[in-house]
Every structure is written in structure tokens, then in C-alpha cells.
Amino acid sequence: MMALETGIVWGADVVMLQEPYVEREGYNISHPGYRLVRGGRTMTAVRRDTHLEFSEVEKGGDGDVQVFGIRYPSGRKMRLVNVYDQLRQEGGVRSQGRPAQTARWREIMEQEKILLGGDWNAHSDRWDPQCPPKRDANFLENLMDEYELIDVTDGEETHSNTRNGETSGSLIDYFITKAVMADRLEISTELTTTSDHAIVCAQ
Predict the structure, then answer these.
(1) pTM of the full structure
(2) What is the pLDDT of residue 150?
(3) When you count CB atoms within 10 A of the terminal residue's CB, does the N or C end of the chain come out lower?
(4) What kind and span of H or E run contains 184?
């Protein structure tokens, strides 16, 4: 829950988490500063004293895609989408199919002012200049092309791992948006947690 503590320090109205800590029997996860809305492999934390109005919109994806409508006091509206795109695991073995890709994306993208963020688990040199061999990128590349979405990260790799003695980085946690919102965003990847996921901030 270090990400939520960072959110409090930053004054964040919402924190989008992927692969959140699994609740154990008899132990309920909560936070004094945030209301936690759990999906499948996503969880969205909404600040309890926020001045924004949040409403969750069901758009499929078996909880791996959480969609929220946001209304500002001025009446301005936007949509926030929390995504975890990865194969399901059954008995420790990855099965076929990524639930996030089955969401009703045409309906999700109807909102002009929209910000999508999360763990896409997609490797492509389109957003990662240091990309290892390209893999699992077709869905996201097609989504970006069809709806003219813009990658609004800084191109810095957000996670590194070591396998067989070789260290490699990856850029799989980030935000995409439509052009109408791109110039309103300020991205920071300097914050860290105990997770292997980067904290990517949008102002």
C-alpha cells in the first residue's frame, strides 16, 4: 500500500493499481484516505475527501478494465480507465486469452476526454526505444491506431529484470490519451514503491 501513501503525499484524487495485494480470509484491506474499488486484477482508490464526482461504468473485461466517469465541480467531464492486460493463470500456468481485451472498447472510447493507464504488458519500439524483442503489442498498437491515441510517457523504461545473468528493461506501465488531453498532462516516473510496477503520475 506504499503507492497509496505516496498518493496522499502527492494529494492524488485517484490511484490506479494493478495486481493489487490479495485479501486474505479474515483480513480486509482498507485505507483511511482512500475508498478502494476492487476489480479483477485492478483496484482503483478514490480519495475520500475528493472534490470530484466519481461513478464506475461497467464495460466488461472481467474486472481487468475499470472505467470511471469523473465530473469536476465546473461540470467538466472526463473518463478514467484502469487496465491490466495479461493472460489469466490457472494452477500456476498461463491460459489463453487476455480478459482486458474482451472489454467493450468501442463504448469505452466514446468519451472524447479520456485517460487510460495501467500495466499493458506489451513490448514495442513504438513506445520503448530500448525495446527487447517485440511481443504482445498487437492489441495495444491497434487500439492506439484506431482511436488516434497518444502515448504520453517520457520513453523511460519503468522496470528492469535480470534473467540468465542478463539485465533488461521494459516500458509496460504508462498512460495513453486522445490529443485533446495530451497537453494537459504532466508525467513523472521518479517515484518508487516496493512493487515491480512503476508509479506513473498524470497531473
Answers:
(1) 0.86
(2) 87
(3) C
(4) none
